[in-house]
Fold Fucosyltransferase.
Amino acid sequence: MGIQLLGCLLTCLLYRPAITWLPVLAKHFQAEHKQGVTVLDWHWPFDHPFKFNSCRSSYNIEGCHLTADRELYSQADAVLIHHREIEEDLSNLPQEPRPSFQKWVWRNFESPAHTNRIPGLEDLFNVTLNYRQDADINMPYGSLVPRTKEREEFVPHKNRLVCWIVSNWNPEHKRTWYYMELRKFIRIHTYGDPFNKKVSLSEYRMIVASCKFYLSFENSVHKDYITEKLHNALKLGAVPVVMGPTRGNYEKFIPGDSFIHVDDFRSPRALAKHLLFLDENEEMYRKYFKWQRIHTVRINSFPIQNACNSCEYIRGHPENRMVTELYKWFWEE
């Protein structure tokens, strides 16, 4: 009996099965029970490195592993690719075969007018990350969020009527023409490189807060393209005078009585007349701040927040799909 037992033990120790189902099952088990999602940031947006903060502590998003280490490409559940950094011949995209489980995320926050239309992008990406409301991962520049407790509105002291801080001056832009006309009828305090008045971040905040009205003029007019120019004005206590998509489009994001749209006036002169009227009527001016009672402004943090949001989306959408009409969706609608 002892000899038989010893033989069984030796057989178990020396035998090596020829079949490979054990490691296959182990890999399958690991894949099914892998903790979290790995997102590889392939391009630093605008070539500016940033720190990978904890998605859990910063945005209450669990199970995210963010990395810029391209050696982890084959393990990444998703690859974030910033449009501005894509070469025309796509040579700086991943060249290795894409793992079947991996999703490529097209990330872009410029308007179509300022986004190069690169050939070869159709049927390349699985997910869109964009300011557009109908993007797979919608990431607006900012938003109004409900307050936990209602409060009275707060209007900072003002010593300027209309202000504009601009860095991108282009004579072909609609906003340039509008400004040139508007200044004929009302004084506009201007700042930024085109006016040889650089401002620091602290100066920017002080200037906007000191103005009754701020020209939140977008550099181009496109669906949902509403940038921090609007949200900064709201946050700092100025009434935004907006130029961008339609009033109806703005009202999908903020209350209609929180801003002034240039399209509501037949001419720059008519707008100037209205601003001067509001300057003399404090009660009517303060009505533009009613939104403060139940809302506060949130400015989204780029690019770390969209990386975390990508992670959350990938975890909740395991299905395999392709973005088949990127050009039509973004450039032609």
Residues 1-33 have pLDDT under 50 and may be disordered. The domain at 33-139+303-332 is CATH 3.40.50 (Rossmann fold). Residues 24 and 30 are 10 Å apart (CA to CA).
